[in-house]
Amino acid sequence: MKVEYRDFVISVLAGLAGGLTVLVLLTAFGHLRQLQTTDTELEALSRRGFERTLAVMDEMRRGVQQLESVDGESCSDSERASLGKLVRNSLYLKSANIHMGGNRYCSDTGIIKRELQKPHLQTADGAEIWLYANNPFSARNNTLLYRNNGVLLSTLHDHLLNIVTDNRTRMVLYDPVSGNVLARHPSGARLDPNQIPALRHEPDTAVVVLQDPRVKVSLLATRRTAAWPVQLRENLWPWLLTAFVCGMLAGALCYRQLGFRRQPAQQLKRAVRSKSFEVNYQPIVAIADGRCLGAECLIRWQDEDGRPVRPDHFVPIAEEIGLIEAMTDIVLEKALMELGDILRSGTLYLSINLSASDMIKRRFYPLLRESLIRAGLDPRKIAIEATERGFVDAERANAVITEMRDAGHSILIDDFGTGYSSLSYLQKLAIDVIKIDKAFVDAINTESATSSVIVHIIAMAKQLGLKTVAEGIETEAQALFLKAHGVDAGQGWYYSKPLTAAHFRLFLENSHAR
Ligand code: C2E
Ligand code: MG
Ligand code: MG
Known about the structure:
Layout: H1 3-68, H2 77-89, E1 95-101, E2 104-107, E3 110-113, E4 121-122, E5 128-134, E6 141-148, E7 151-156, H3 157-160, E8 169-174, E9 181-185, H4 196-200, E10 205-212, E11 215-224, H5 228-234, H6 236-262, H7 264-273, E12 278-286, E13 292-302, E14 308-309, H8 311-320, H9 324-345, E15 349-354, H10 364-375, E16 382-387, H11 394-407, E17 411-416, H12 423-428, E18 433-436, H13 438-442, H14 453-463, E19 467-470, H15 476-484, E20 489-490, H16 501-513
Parallel strand pairs: 13-15, 15-16, 16-17, 17-18, 18-19, 19-20
Antiparallel strand pairs: 1-2, 1-7, 2-3, 4-5, 5-6, 6-7, 8-9, 8-11, 10-11, 12-13, 12-20, 13-14
Helix pairs in contact: 1-5, 1-6, 9-10
One magnesium ion binds next to strand 17.
């Protein structure tokens, strides 16, 4: 799977996981909040319920006051009309009657006879209350009768707790002395005032008990905390949206993080760990007759997406993060492994590029020596290329290369002319060859100001007794020019591009055959 695609899939999964986690957390948080708010919400609901009860009771009290002045003795038409008017003008009253004595009552339809038992409860202001499933005074069921000062009124049980709640709330209005129930909400709710202590211990249940000194009734209310899925259902869209946004963010963050992992520095670290570099060999030929003298080892790397990265890009990064020395070692190891046999059997040499940090540490040479001994190779088979940058700390660099030079390795100064080396400076360096930079080769036979510089470089090298290798030769004209000026060796696409070990072998076979 391609790295970017794999990262994308991982990020999508991370986004999904993130979104899901947020959803679960929201549900859990909602549940906790619900636990906290259930008590206060129930308290508010109970108060509303109780206020309704008091409002109904109030209406009955006012009804009694209004009818107190009506003399029901004769139960005349006007008296009956007043009774009917009172019921019509009230919110909760269902019937109004005036006690005429004994079992006789004056109603809006005439005199009726009713026998009432002992009242079920008595309010603080002395009113008697009967609770009937079947109303003896009207056709309506679940009736509450209220009698005070000879006035008998009726209302429905349901009016007493007629408020809007959710289906998790239960209420019961009761007489705390007798335990008689006046009303339930919802009407079929099974809630027993005798179970208050047990209810208080029930998990996820809030319990509220209200009392009011004006009426001798109490209200018991319970509310179950919403189950998790209920919460989810109630808040589905906002929570889903939040989870979606968080999931997207998590996915994007993950992709970015993975992107960082894809960054060259991180990738280079992994490549060094797994030694996943290749080495190409660019033939170095004698300018005079085109004979192959050896090759320069050039490191090659493909990033984790399989794209080749130019050494110009990754070598500076490797230098910056301290990986270049490990890479020099890898190049040496691969080169000896791939072409050790050719080096042993002939006169060819390989040149290895050293980094600036290799030039100031006495680290590489012991390794080089060991490797050559193990491979059974003469030190002359490995040349060392050091750039002018490597000589910034000239003293230490000189010490390092002198050791190698004394052992028999040729020392080449790479990219010569592009740095800040002066002639006097060059004299002090323990070097054998200068590699004339491609920039000067490019300028050959051109009108540019640098076109004549190469002639001076060649002359200077000769004066110092140094050999010359010209880099980046691309045309026959350049090769002829360099030949005419006595440059020793050349390297460039004109002869060959950098080759894999197998192709370099073919190149050698072909050049021998020529
Ligand atoms: P360099 O050591 O001067 O290597 C010569 C560069 O010129 C190589 O580029 C080579 O492919 C390129 N070249 C050779 N002939 C021609 C030509 O005719 N035309 C053109 N246009 N280019 C030509 P490459 O391989 O991309 O390497 C670039 C630089 O990266 C090297 O310059 C060297 O400084 C560094 N490098 C490469 N391999 C290593 C290594 O193993 N270790 C270290 N420390 N640096 C390395
Ligand atoms: Mg080089
Ligand atoms: Mg060079």
